[in-house]
# Entry
Amino acid sequence: MKLHLKSGRLIDPTKGKDVVTDMLIVDGRIERIGQSLSADRSFETIDLKNKVIAPGFIDMHVHLREPGYEHKETIETGCASAAAGGFTAVCCMPNTNPTIDEESVARYVQEEGRRVTGGLVDVYPIAAATKGRKGEELAPMAELSKAGAVGFSDDGSPIASAELMRRVLEYSSMYGLPVIQHAEEQTLTKNGLMNEGLVATRLGMPGIPPIAEELIIERDIILLRYVPLSKYHVAHISTSGSIGCVRRAKAEKLNITCEVAPHHFTLTDAAVESFATNLKMSPPLRTKDDVQALKEALRDGTIDVIATDHAPHTIDEKEVEYAQAPFGIVGLETAIGLSVTELVNQKYLTLNQLIEKLSINPRRILSLSVINIQEGETANLTVFDPEKEWVVDIQAFKSKSKNSPFHGRRLKGKTIGIINNGKSWFV
# Structure
């Protein structure tokens, strides 16, 4: 592979760099960076005028479904979706079958990722915090850490027991890995279908109250004070009250971080009036005030990461009554478009800040090496066009599943290509 990236806007937040430049990449390594570089005919020249070159994006919250649920998604189709969305790495959540709660499954996920992509998209396992994600007994965290796990979570299920959560925090701190909590007090959410509020009342739907999320976060913050050397991360945060919890904990200098999914800073519970099952997700879509609070928290740095919570389901599973449909939507291929449209164009984030939340911050949280864009280093890059206007077409998705509420939506900002581990993919 010999590439000449010409006239791209290189934005590297780690070095405070924002410059239009050329880049020569040979066999996966950055050979030269500089303006108006010349290259012989053996190089493939890619004109990136008005395009952004960024450190490779990583989505730290993805459901690849394999092993066990290959009818929804496979590691191969999930990685193809990730590449199309501009991600050079994804983290596979543990609600597979079998669960990622033992070394062999953790290693399989990584090895299968390398096999099907040739290294274009790195796959990192998030291991279960408890065996079978049942919340009863600790998973073998030392074994899983050695097998390549980059975090621990019972995602889809909260770690409900305070005693068990304490132990998870203690053991995870020995390996420098975060505990990623699906914050939901399930005694408050039983049979809930959407956000508890005026819209749910009008539609006659059982509600999921915002305090169900906030109660678990507040409890975990108390535990975090007791186990201060641990790393605690809130998955898919969705309410203004939860933002307040995290903001206060950060003011205390506690080691707490959080992520938000694009659908939560884009849509409100009012959209559910259509009864479209692709609007059913967990946590649910919240109110206009919550959406505004999430955007402000992205702006002030309370929210560290944008992650998709990519959750594929088949058409048959979603084309049922709202109450019977599973929670979750796909998100890898719309993440950049929604983020640029809703955040950059509305002046909540600069492109530099957006890149921090899609590349720099998640890698730091997961104790992965932050990408170094300089001569002699391996190229791990995401290239996107922040001005490209396009219309979402779910039939063009690389994902095996098409359960997106954004079909037909006009967005601004689209992936042009990615480079990683000596492999490249460009539109």
